[in-house]
Amino acid sequence: MVIWASINGATEGRLFPGTGYTVIITGMEYLIIAQTAFYAVFSLAILTLSILLAAALYYLLGIAKHLRKITENADAVSGEAREKLQELLDALTRLPIISFLFNDKRDRDDAKSKPAKGRNSKQ
Q1: Greater confidence, 76 or 46?
Q2: How many domains does the chain have?
């Protein structure tokens, strides 16, 4: 049984071997079938890439949210550490030997030139 026939440049092929159906396809029909197959495969590829891109974007947004939380926590911890370090430095600068060794000579001269305050100082 012949399903379709064309006279010019026709080639014969079996669509379903063993069923007795014969399809005769010309050169132009090859192009139509090839074009249809190309569009179908290309559409599936675009659809697959779109789904993969959407999934990657979803996970990247999740990573960005976690990264923001991590940086906020690190900023809070560094602020606390900065305050404690400043308190430690203030406590160390109150020690006479530390202030003598690490203060600038001008600071020591300024301290000598200032009148002393206390019980024995004359006011």
Answers
A1: 46
A2: 1
